[in-house]
Write a structure and sequence with these properties.
elongated, 2 helices, 16% helix, binds zinc ion, Ubiquitin Ligase Nedd4, Chain: W, alpha+beta, 2 domains, 35% strand
Length: 181
């Protein structure tokens, strides 16, 4: 996934770039040999929620690649002009059409290999009326014993659910930080 974001052509003039360490830098960048533009690629934030209704959690079956047909928590790329919390709420609306009361930040997971940081907020569902958007085949509630562990889309979703069910035993929900390399 990291290399999916590798730049091959200059975003200013379209010339094939050279990958080299620019002067006064210490990392390899995509440098345009024609106009001199240096491309800086930095990690992206993926923001989402863990929506809960009683002792059930909401999962969405993905209708898009990657991991089409697998189950995920509602989440997606943060947009310019919004906060992480606003992005998480927006993704929950777009992917599940779920009505939530957003709670506290719950998991921050560095996905180093993909150049992403995943942030999940806890959320309380206000009702069980879901209206999945085009990126979702199905949105439904799962009891703990029903969670499709083998068909989860992403490791960060598994980690967040693992921690949630463990915390629910104690009733103590802090913030969890983890790294995937
Ligand atoms: Zn250029």
């Amino acid at each position: 996934m990291l290399f999916a974001r590798r730049i091959e052509h200059c975003q200013v003039c379209g010339t094939p770039v050279e990958h080299k360490v620019p002067a006064d830098d210490n990392r390899e960048r995509a440098v345009c040999p024609s106009c001199g533009h240096v491309h800086y690629v930095n990690p992206l934030n993926v923001v989402g929620t863990l929506p809960v209704w009683g002792d059930q959690v909401l999962l969405c079956k993905r209708n898009i690649e990657p991991r089409k047909g697998f189950w995920t928590l509602p989440a997606g790329f943060m947009e310019l002009g919004e906060t992480t919390a606003e992005g998480a709420a927006r993704e929950t609306d777009e992917e599940a059409g779920a009505h939530i009361e957003l709670g506290d930040l719950y998991c921050v997971i560095n996905v180093v290999s993909a150049g992403q940081v995943h942030l999940f907020y806890r959320a309380r569902l206000l009702d069980t009326e879901f209206a999945p958007g085009p990126e979702t085949m199905e949105a439904r509630l799962f009891h703990r014993h029903e969670i499709p562990w083998d068909d989860l889309a992403f490791r960060t979703v598994r980690m967040t659910l693992d921690r949630y069910f463990a915390d629910r035993e104690t009733g103590q929900f802090g913030i969890h930080c983890a790294d995937i390399r």
